[in-house]
Design a protein that fits this description.
Number of helices: 0
Number of strands: 11
Mean pLDDT: 97
Distance between the termini: 37 Å
Largest sheet: 7 strands, mixed
Low-confidence stretches: none
Length: 118
């Protein structure tokens, strides 16, 4: 499985961005896709996830109500819609995928930088 993340950029506080995570290869083995982020000097943080069938989106409390995860089945792409971005959302965002078992995310895409100016 290969994952390609894209869509990052520089925006002002309050703006929106949509990140994309395109999957290719043996995608039948994917059970769920997650989004993570890492800000400078901080540990990687879980943002949210969605089952590969497009169901059961789940969000970290820090982004709940502002971020939405959805899947385009035709494109095997998972999107992270980020609204009302805040300075604290500045980070490198990564997408990752996992099988049903084990539960660790085993496939990772390259990061995409999101910078929010205050």
């Amino acid at each position: 499985v290969q994952l390609q993340a894209s869509g990052g950029g520089l925006v002002q506080a309050g703006a929106s961005l949509r990140l994309a995570c395109a999957a290719s290869g043996s995608t039948l083995g994917i059970y769920a896709v997650g989004w993570f982020r890492q800000a400078p000097g901080k540990e990687r943080e879980f943002v949210g996830s969605i089952a590969w069938n497009g169901r059961n989106p789940y969000y970290a409390d820090s982004v709940k109500g502002r971020f939405t995860i959805a899947k385009d089945h035709a494109r095997d792409t998972v999107y992270l819609q980020m609204d009302n971005l805040q300075f604290e959302d500045t980070a490198v965002y990564y997408c990752a995928a996992r099988k049903n078992r084990p539960t660790q995310y085993q496939w990772w895409g390259q990061g995409t930088q999101v910078t929010v100016s205050s």
